[in-house]
């Protein structure tokens, strides 16, 4: 018999009844029923119930153990009675009667329990990370990451890509963020840079003729934390030779759609070959973001021309000074009180904006200061142009183009959430295309790259002139 186990803790079934087995794992839960002890023994694969009573030589030892002690059990597989079967466990039809037990590592009192899903402060979880990693949710997340990476790798290879590993220590390259620097021992006063992305190396591979490269690449950026990025993160990185933009999309859509379909838990996914292409300018107008949530049906519109000459002096002044006015529909808000609209305005101010104007409408009657000053006929023209109904409200974001677009995008998201308009149970993909290559930094007055400079401009180099 193997020194530690004949089976893992998810393997045993009813057809193993009567067999002598050896299991090793962690004491997950203990239940003492007065002379009969039940232990849930856990390993990487699952849980098996161990039972010991007064006929078991292991009882005294097992009773003395704390949770998370590591033990090896020798025992016999027994069938559970119908009323004690656990349908939630793959091993729920059996249990192992412990004949003997060996303690591989006895645990002390735990700083946080492994069993259960209680929330604990992050500092405790990080200090005792070796315990935290044993918790079911964390364990599942790490295994999910493993499965996603495995799926990505398989799908990229199916698309004809070859996987290569590029150096971690190299020279600095202009990627748009600060590098992490590593001092060189052999060359005092000089430094290596950790890669923000393997840009230079992968382009060397293309120049050398390797044609299709990919890598699950570690990237390092010395910048402030964001919700979707850490100082160290991994990305699916790839390059292709002798291809158009459309070739790139066609190669990657099956990978992205396939991975999400595999791990979406039944949610619908935009099919490969059907990702909409949205120009950057259109995305910033309609969604106020270059990362639009297409599950939200609200579309932003530019209504600046309606306020060039208007009875609403604030907007007229903004437009006359080179500003813009964006409209964000709030469909079906006739049953909402004015507080809903005021709360949206207060929210915008808390977010650092000047405010969010609005118009209410109930049974065709307009309400609010903007409608009063702009006039019902002019408001009707806006509503007709936007295709809005007699019970739809309307928010306005006005100001400098960038600020108004940013507020409109945030208000679109907020409004969609507050009104319950976000479609659930789906993932909706799109490609944002035709990004501007350069933009003006308003703080410095300098022209800078607006995104990754290692990109083929539409129209080639001539377009950059």
What does this structure look like?
The protein is α+β, with helices and mostly antiparallel strands and 465 residues long. 29% of the residues lie in helices and 25% in strands. It has 13 helices and 21 strands. The strands form seven sheets. A five-stranded mixed barrel has the order 1-2-3-5-4. The radius of gyration is 31 Å and the shape is extended. The model has no long low-confidence stretch (mean pLDDT 93).
Q: Main β-sheet, in a few words?
A: 5 strands, mixed, barrel
Percent of residues in β-strands: 15-25%
Query: What is the subunit organization of this protein?
Result: single chain
Averaged pLDDT: 93
Short description:
The chain has 465 residues and is of the alpha+beta class. Helix content is 29%, strand content 25%. The protein has a five-stranded mixed β-barrel with strand order 1-2-3-5-4.
Descriptive terms for the model:
single chain, 465 residues, alpha+beta, 5-stranded mixed β-barrel, 5-stranded antiparallel beta sheet, 13 helices, 21 strands, 29% helix, 25% strand
Explain the layout of strands and helices:
Elements: E1 20-32, E2 37-42, E3 47-52, H1 59-63, E4 70-79, E5 94-105, H2 122-127, H3 129-132, H4 136-158, E6 162-163, E7 181-183, E8 191-193, H5 199-207, E9 212-220, E10 232-240, H6 245-263, E11 268-269, E12 277-279, H7 280-286, E13 301-302, H8 313-320, E14 324-330, H9 338-350, E15 357-362, E16 365-367, H10 369-374, H11 376-386, E17 393-399, H12 401-418, E18 426-427, E19 431-433, E20 438-440, E21 447-449, H13 460-463
Parallel strand pairs: 3-5, 6-9, 11-18, 12-19
Antiparallel strand pairs: 1-2, 1-4, 2-3, 4-5, 7-8, 9-10, 13-14, 14-17, 15-16, 15-17, 20-21
Helix pairs in contact: 4-6
């Amino acid at each position: 018999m193997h020194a530690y186990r004949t089976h893992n803790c998810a393997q045993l079934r009813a057809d193993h009844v009567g067999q002598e087995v050896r299991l090793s794992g962690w004491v997950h839960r203990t239940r003492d029923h007065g002379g009969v002890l039940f232990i849930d023994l856990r390993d990487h694969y699952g849980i098996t119930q161990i039972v010991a009573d007064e006929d078991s030589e292991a009882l005294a030892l097992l009773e003395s153990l704390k949770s998370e002690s590591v033990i090896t059990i020798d025992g016999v597989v027994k069938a559970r009675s119908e009323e004690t079967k656990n349908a939630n466990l793959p091993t729920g039809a059996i249990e192992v009667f412990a004949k003997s037990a060996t303690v591989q590592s006895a645990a002390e009192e735990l700083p946080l329990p492994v069993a259960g899903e209680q929330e604990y402060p992050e500092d405790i979880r990080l200090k005792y990370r070796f315990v935290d990693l044993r918790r079911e949710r964390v364990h599942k997340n790490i295994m999910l990451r493993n499965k996603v990476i495995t799926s990505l790798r398989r799908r990229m290879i199916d698309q004809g890509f070859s996987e290569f590993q590029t150096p971690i220590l190299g020279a600095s390259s202009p990627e748009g963020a600060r590098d992490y620097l590593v001092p060189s021992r052999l060359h005092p006063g000089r430094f290596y840079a950790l890669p923000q992305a393997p840009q230079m190396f992968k382009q060397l591979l293309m120049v050398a003729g390797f044609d299709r490269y990919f890598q699950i690449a570690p990237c390092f950026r010395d910048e402030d934390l964001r919700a979707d990025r850490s100082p160290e993160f991994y990305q699916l990185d790839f390059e292709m030779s002798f291809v158009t933009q459309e070739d790139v999309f066609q190669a990657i859509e099956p990978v992205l759609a396939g991975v999400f379909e595999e791990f979406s838990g039944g949610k619908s996914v935009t099919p490969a070959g059907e990702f909409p292409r949205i120009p950057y300018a259109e995305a910033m107008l309609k969604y106020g973001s270059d990362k639009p949530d297409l599950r939200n049906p609200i579309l932003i519109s530019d209504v600046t021309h309606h306020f060039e000459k208007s009875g609403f002096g604030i907007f007229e002044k903004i437009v006359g000074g080179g500003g813009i006015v964006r409209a964000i529909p709030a469909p079906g808000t006739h049953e909402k009180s004015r507080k809903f609209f005021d709360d949206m305005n207060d929210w915008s101010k808390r977010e650092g904006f000047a405010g969010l104007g609005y118009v209410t409408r109930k049974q065709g009657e307009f309400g609010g200061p903007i409608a009063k000053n702009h006039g019902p006929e002019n408001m009707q023209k806006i509503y007709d142009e936007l295709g809005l109904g007699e019970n739809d409200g309307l928010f306005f974001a006005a100001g400098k183009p960038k600020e108004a677009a940013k507020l409109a995008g945030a208000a679109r998201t907020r409004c969609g959430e507050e009104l319950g308009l976000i479609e659930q149970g789906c993932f909706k993909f799109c490609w944002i295309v035709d990004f501007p290559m350069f933009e003006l930094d308003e703080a410095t007055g300098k022209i800078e790259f607006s995104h990754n400079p290692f990109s083929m401009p539409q129209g080639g180099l001539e377009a950059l002139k």
